[in-house]
Design a protein that fits this description.
Layout: H1 13-23, H2 28-41, H3 47-57, H4 61-69, H5 81-88, H6 93-101
Length: 105
C-alpha cells in the first residue's frame, strides 16, 4: 500500500478493512484522497461516521473525483459533514508523487 502512514496493527478489523479499501480505490487520485484522509482520521471516527464513510466509498471513483473536484454537483444524499471533510481534505499530491518516484521534495 504505497503511501500508507497509519499502521493497521492497532486498528480493529473493520477499520483495517476500510484502510485497505481507501488505499486500493482503483484511481490513484482517489487512493490519495481517501487513503490520506483515512491515515489522518480513521482511528477517531465514530461508528456512525464509519457507516457513512463506507457508504461514500461505495460510490464510483469517477463520480467521487468529480464531486470532490467540484466539476459535478454533489448529490443531496452525500451533502453531509463527513463528505465535506473528505472533499475539503487536501492531500499533498506533490509529496506523494516525489515519494513514488524516489525523489526528495
Amino acid at each position: 500500500m504505497t503511501g500508507v502512514t497509519l499502521s493497521s496493527a492497532d486498528l480493529d478489523p473493520r477499520r483495517r478493512r476500510i484502510l485497505f479499501r481507501c488505499w486500493h480505490r482503483g484511481i490513484r487520485e482517489m487512493d490519495l484522497v481517501f487513503g490520506q484522509f483515512a491515515d489522518a482520521h480513521l482511528p477517531t471516527l465514530s461508528e456512525a461516521e464509519l457507516d457513512e464513510f463506507e457508504v461514500i466509498m461505495d460510490e464510483e471513483d469517477n463520480d467521487l473525483a468529480r464531486w470532490i473536484l467540484g466539476t459535478l454537483p454533489v448529490p443531496e444524499r452525500l451533502m453531509t459533514p463527513l463528505f465535506s471533510r473528505i472533499a475539503s481534505y487536501k492531500p499533498d499530491f506533490e509529496e506523494m508523487t516525489a515519494a513514488t518516484l524516489g525523489k526528495a521534495v
